[in-house]
Specification:
With 713 residues, the chain is α/β, with parallel strands linked by helices. 19% of the residues lie in helices and 12% in strands. The chain contains 18 helices and 19 strands. The chain has an 8-stranded mixed β-sheet, with helices on both faces.
């Protein structure tokens, strides 16, 4: 993986979670409208003086108040915010300078944990939530077997809701706010922004699904939570940055009515919790890193942040089996996500683990402004083969759909080749969708999540697994159905129930070669072929169907389907091609006959060679990188960042023959007099046929001829 990249257009401004539209204010606050200060090193309570901490604060842009105050703390007895030192009623509103938290920590061996209930742990100091007026804390509880089971622990990085501008990070309109979203379920102080941790302290939280305690958890019987005797640490995200942030950022600093300073300190907060976990489970044999929501009703997104922390935990616990499960977060976003994060407002480039090492890949190998979150998961899986990663999700989780829409996607953008309104009879314009072609479906939710999951299965190593269910249910790990549900209900076997699937995943071993590379991963399902993983027992029936070229690893990829009244003549301009090139590729008897629903080849498959860049591929075939990206967008050959292509990747190319060069660097067609592409498209195709002494009516009107599969260039 090298770095070069491109940035998508500015975000469209659609509101998250179906709320009121953000309109133009979204665009205004996405890029270049903020000021920030990065926290360059690891942060923990000990060794950080008040003066040093103040020097790490950014200048206030939204107010002149730069006073640092003590964070209030919730009093469960009196049901109010109080001063942690005096006990008097006390509260804060949004703070430019984050409040100072009072430290209160204890180890898991402390007798207080013997009641097996959650205990709140306050790292203190600068561990605060995104609005600067609430302290961060995490929660832990002992195994249901107490100290008799000291070596198995689940570390849950909770979905908190990600934010990227004044509206989604702010407190002005709670309908638009997405940071610390679950706090809205339990507003603990009128007129202020409560923290997520307090919302998690409800008596009914973490009582179902994988979180349900059960001392006798060895049975495979229906209803048994096989993780019921594992210890649990819950790390909230109240900073809007997927546990990856290390930056204080002011959004809309020039607008006093919208200006807000957000303290994206997710990496700092999570790092303090992770350091405590490593100290208390130094001899762990099994660590299950979870990214999930706290309940089925949670509207917070961002579980894939857990994938950033699993490798670090493995590096510090080399003898433990570390597995990472990402729940209800397929990381499927619209085309404008990179633009929304172009300024890196979270400070991911400077996120640090507790030992001072970089939490994320080097910026030249992955960056939030140029890459997909799916690529981050892929990078970690290849870089850390001893860690295993798994996705579990429903196909149409409405929170994920809303995230897709707010970043420029659409619920339906086409009706063919795996798109959202593909009911088997609709072909493009007749269904009210845009005419399908190379530009069709690039913003379609159904097609996008299929392409994302298929490419993940195809590109990632054998330490990756997925489990996909149909419907809208979310946060499977917190659901009572966790112990009973299968991905394919009609074929629900004991080993394919979610609880058993994940238990086999969490305890399955991996075997390595002498050079440290992964040899085999003994992870479910037993049949680990591509076809079984896509169409078998761990994927709901039909949920990944319809994407051309996905039928097998070697299937033809550069194909599409003719929509209503389309012919090879009419579709050629979509590919900057001409009817003769398409006609010769497909071997049909008549290029001008509408063959609605027929699959046709539009280009050639090209396999990227070692050390070859997308720029070199484009130059060889007489085109440019932007055109190659457009041509492959949201197909099985999709390329998001051209710098991420690697040897063996297949991309679709439509050669511009008068510029195409052979392997010796010589033009295949040296004469510039040959006219192809757009130049030909300006002529009447019937006139061209007449020049050849033929008319369409002279050609047999029969079905498409069967031709041999296209060869890769």
């Amino acid at each position: 993986f090298g770095l070069k990249g491109q940035r998508a257009a500015l975000a469209s401004g659609m509101a998250l979670h179906g709320r009121t539209a953000l309109a133009a204010v979204l665009v205004a606050s996405l890029v270049g409208c903020g000021a920030a200060h990065e926290h360059m090193g690891p942060m923990e309570e000990r060794g950080v003086t008040h003066e040093a901490e103040m020097n790490m604060m950014m200048p206030a842009y939204c107010s002149i108040d730069r006073v640092q105050r003590v964070c209030p703390r919730w009093d469960d007895t009196n049901n109010q915010m109080t001063h942690p030192d005096t006990g008097a009623k006390y509260d804060l509103d949004q703070q430019e300078v984050p409040c100072m938290s009072r430290r209160r920590m204890m180890d898991i061996t402390d007798p207080v944990f013997q009641d097996l209930a959650f205990k709140k742990l306050y790292p203190g100091g600068h561990s605060v939530c995104g609005h600067g007026n609430r302290e961060f804390y995490f929660m832990a509880r002992e195994s249901a077997k107490g100290r008799n089971e000291p070596n198995k622990v689940m570390v849950a990085f909770m979905s908190g809701g990600w934010c990227w501008n004044a509206e989604t990070c702010g407190v002005m309109d709670l309908q638009l706010r997405t940071m610390a979203r679950d706090a809205l379920l339990n507003s603990v102080a009128a007129g202020s922004a409560p923290s997520v941790p307090q919302a998690y302290s409800r008596s009914d939280a973490f009582k179902s699904g994988i979180f349900r305690q059960q001392a006798e958890a060895d049975s495979t019987a229906i209803g048994t939570n096989r993780f019921g005797d594992w210890a649990l640490v819950v790390i909230p995200d109240c900073t809007g940055d997927l546990h990856m942030g290390n930056r204080t950022y002011t959004y809309s600093p020039d607008d006093p009515t919208r200006c807000i300073t957000a303290h994206h300190r997710g990496a700092t907060n999570a790092g303090m919790a992770v350091e405590w976990v490593l100290r208390n489970w130094a001899h762990a044999t099994h660590v299950l890193v979870l990214g999930t929501g706290h309940s089925e009703s949670s509207k917070a997104s961002g579980a894939h942040g857990a994938a950033a922390w699993a490798p670090y935990i493995q590096s510090k616990l080399p003898n433990a089996l570390v597995r990472c499960v990402i729940d209800s977060s397929m990381a499927v976003f619209g085309p404008n996500l990179n633009a929304a994060l172009a300024a890196d407002p979270w400070g991911t480039s400077h996120a640090r683990a507790p030992d001072g090492s970089g939490l994320l890949p080097p910026p030249e190998e992955w960056h939030v402004a140029t890459d997909e979150f799916s690529t981050l998961l892929e990078w970690n899986a290849w870089k850390y083969p001893s860690v295993a990663f798994a996705d579990i999700s429903s196909t149409d989780d409405q929170v994920q759909v809303a995230d897709f829409e707010v970043t420029g996607g659409m619920r339906r953008d086409c009706c063919l080749n795996g798109c959202g309104c593909n009911f088997g009879t609709d072909f493009g314009v007749s269904a009210g969708a845009p005419a399908f072609g190379v530009v069709g479906g690039t913003r379609d939710w159904t097609k996008s999540r299929k392409v994302t999951m298929l490419r993940r299965i195809r590109r990632m190593p054998s330490n990756y697994r997925s489990w996909l269910h149909s419907g809208e249910r979310r946060n499977w790990l917190a659901s009572a159905r966790f112990t009973t549900q299968c991905a394919v209900p009609s074929n629900c076997m004991e080993h394919s129930r979610l609880v058993n699937f994940l238990f086999l995943f969490a305890t399955g071993t991996t075997v390595f070669n002498a050079d440290g590379s992964l040899q085999v991963a003994n992870l479910p399902p037993a049949n680990r072929t591509y076809v079984n993983r896509v169409f078998g027992e761990v994927t709901c029936t039909g949920c990944l169907d319809g994407i051309l070229g996905s039928e097998s690893m070697g299937a033809e990829a550069c194909t599409s389907t003719l929509g209503d009244a389309e012919t090879l003549f009419t579709v050629a301009p979509k590919y900057r091609s001409d009817w003769m090139a398409l006609w010769s590729l497909n071997g049909w008897e008549a290029p001008d006959v509408a063959r609605t629903g027929s699959v046709y080849r539009f280009g050639h498959m090209y396999e990227v060679r070692e050390g070859e860049s997308m720029g070199e591929v484009a130059e060889r075939f007489g085109t440019d990188v932007e055109e190659l990206l457009r041509l492959n967008r949201n197909l099985i050959t999709h390329v998001h960042n051209p710098a991420r292509v690697r040897e063996g990747d297949v991309v679709c190319v439509v050669p511009q023959w008068h510029h195409t060069m052979d392997q010796m660097g010589q033009k295949i067609c040296p004469s510039d007099g040959q006219r192809f592409g757009e130049a030909l498209s300006e002529r009447d195709p019937l006139e061209e046929l007449a020049e050849e002494g033929m008319m369409p009516g002279d050609m047999p009107q029969v079905g498409a001829a069967r031709v041999a599969p296209a060869k890769r260039l």
